[in-house]
Amino acid sequence: MTKQEHILYRALVERDKAYDGHFYFGVTSTGIYCRPICPANKPKPENVLFFAGAEDAARAGFRACKRCRPESRPGSPAWQGTEATVTRALRLIAEGFLENNTIDELADKLGISDRHLRRLFDKHIGISPIEIASKRRLDIAKALLKSSKHSVADIAFASGFSSLRRFNDSFKKTTSLSPTVWRKRNRHAH
């Protein structure tokens, strides 16, 4: 193995994002080619061939990996992989999708299982889609508590909570204050 091949092999073993799109590698034992960031098990050095482009690997007779999608255009959702799915889910949650739909329906809309959706959120964000939606509702409620004179009950329903009790419980859990006390303290702060 040449010094350059050793550097490239190390980059693929470490899944170094800095090399993503700059080279591809084919695995002679499987006939598959990948990007250096591929999550698949890494091949033995003697089974690896390096290519400057995905087309070169395809012309050499290798087929594209179904996990890292090396044949896709850099920057496309297929290229971004699971991050693109999480980004799309976050956009739908921000638009209020979970106010009238379930996690199962969100997962169906994304074309994945609800279990896989939860795994992706845990991996990329560290909290569940439900927690994201709850945080969104609380942020809306806080903004309304600061800027409006509506009753706490009206604000609870306007921000997407199904009951005043759930709103109060959720609010106290995250702020350690009731919505009324929080409103008084934040109005005095201005």
Describe the structure.
This protein has 190 residues and is of the alpha+beta class. It folds into three domains: 3-64, DNA Methylphosphotriester Repair Domain (3-Layer(aba) Sandwich); 81-126; 130-189, Homeodomain-like (Arc Repressor Mutant, subunit A, Orthogonal Bundle). Helix content is 56%, strand content 7%. It has eleven helices and four strands. It has a four-stranded mixed sheet with strand order 3-1-2-4. A hairpin with a 4-residue loop joins strand 1 and strand 2. It is elongated and about 70 Å long. The chain starts with a helix and ends with a helix. The model has no long low-confidence stretch (mean pLDDT 89).
List the defining traits of the structure above.
single chain, alpha+beta, DNA Methylphosphotriester Repair Domain, Arc Repressor Mutant, subunit A, four-stranded mixed sheet, 4 strands, 7% strand
Ranges where pLDDT stays below 50 over 5 or more residues in a row are none
CATH superfamily of the largest domain: DNA Methylphosphotriester Repair Domain
In order across it, which strands form the biggest sheet?
3-1-2-4
Number of E-type strands: 4
Percent helix: 55-70%
| CA gyration radius, whole angstroms | 24 Å
CATH topology of the largest domain: DNA Methylphosphotriester Repair Domain
The share of residues in extended strands comes to: 5-15%
Number of helices: 11
SSE arrangement, N to C: HEEEHEHHHHHHHHH
Ends apart, CA distance between termini: 67 Å
Major β-sheet, in short? Answer: 4 strands, mixed
CATH architecture of the largest domain: 3-Layer(aba) Sandwich
Overall pLDDT confidence = 89
Number of domains: 3
In the CATH hierarchy, what is the class of the largest domain? Alpha Beta
- What form results from the Cα inertia axes? elongated
Structural class: alpha+beta
